[in-house]
Amino acid sequence: MYVDLGNALDAEPRLTREALDRLDERVADAHDRIARGREHADHGYAALNLPDTVDPDAIRASVADFDDPAAVLTVGIGGSALGAATLAEALGADLAHYILDNVDPAHVRSLLDSLPLADTVVHVVSRSGTTAETLANFLVVREAMDRAGVDWTDRTLVTTGEDGNLRRLADRHDLPALDVPAGVPGRFSALSTVALPVAALGGADLDELLAGARAEADRLSGSLFDAPAYAYGAACYALERRGAGVNAVMPYAESLEFFAEWFAQLWAESLGKDAVGQTPARALGATDQHSQLQLYRAGPRDKLVTLVRPRERPDVPIPETDLDGLSYLGGGSLAALLDAEFEATEASLAAARCPNIRIEVDRIDERGVGELLYGMEAACVCYGELAGVETFTQPAVEWGKRAARGLLGGGDFPEAEAVGEKRRLLVE
Ligand SMILES: O=P(O)(O)OC[C@H]1O[C@](O)(CO)[C@@H](O)[C@@H]1O
What we know:
It is found in: Cytoplasm. The chain is an alpha/beta fold.
């Protein structure tokens, strides 16, 4: 992974090179803490050991019986779905992969009606094994398979924790089940049993993926000027401290659209604590040049833009044309056009003094994606260390879960009563 901080300096909010040099001393301390946390496989830090601790053979074996499925359905939410969606979109060009990560009845019904259930593999994933949306969706999927005369126990792979409803269900029906990695929060678990089964079903080379991640791990060091992941994490932190409360992540590749979603959970759930944190905004290049760029260039000075692209990509030629005014396009290629758009947008942000960071990988292949995911995870951990927040917990999400459970008769929760006390000012 290549990280270019040039356009992050001396913009608005203003981060100077001198400030970055001073921050580097704190990055050295952060790296020491991270290295100690990895050494002891402490909760959260263990995620950065996955390239060495995950067992790709066991994952390949877990999907070996599902030969060449027509479709793969991941039933999970948050970190239990976004990693798989990112890997399938970036690496599984031939894989028909779907995720059920919401409980919208209309969507669930239409998706299940459209799937070839007899030839679909279901990967149900929940670290806690208790997430309502995932368990409810799985019960619905199971019934749909029953109705279609499909033996769902033959089509289902489970990834979950040591206990919980999903583990009990897997044990009761003797389903093939993988363990979530110990000490790894969901949003940091893409390079594990949580998402790699889908990558394997899509034919991805897991060893290359992990090699890319390992290469990024090997670059972690006591200086942000030697470690691309820390360079990104430290610069984002420093810019947030100076007012860049929004980080618009804009990959210039359709196959990285889910990556922006995955990044949004990683950044928001890890760093949004104690009244600090940087709000991730998903964007896509070149598409959102025509929807968001106006705001990034001329709106409030509260943003950083992260531009992501591969250095090499497949191409499509643009046919010659004799249409006036189009000769600059004719005979060229879409890749050249997209790269020109990338560089022009980058320069336009700099001209508007909007800080932006360029992130590149050589290609969107196993190695490149391994580098990118691991790099972003290490960047997030570094940012969390510098900000002094609990990077690996997400206590604020529990209130709503208790309220919903209480509303559905799943127990007595004061939060459910608070729902009834909603203030009203209805305009209709
Ligand atoms: O894997 P689980 O336990 O079902 O949780 C799913 C997601 O829900 C959260 O716990 C937030 O509610 C995320 O941290 C997690 O990725």
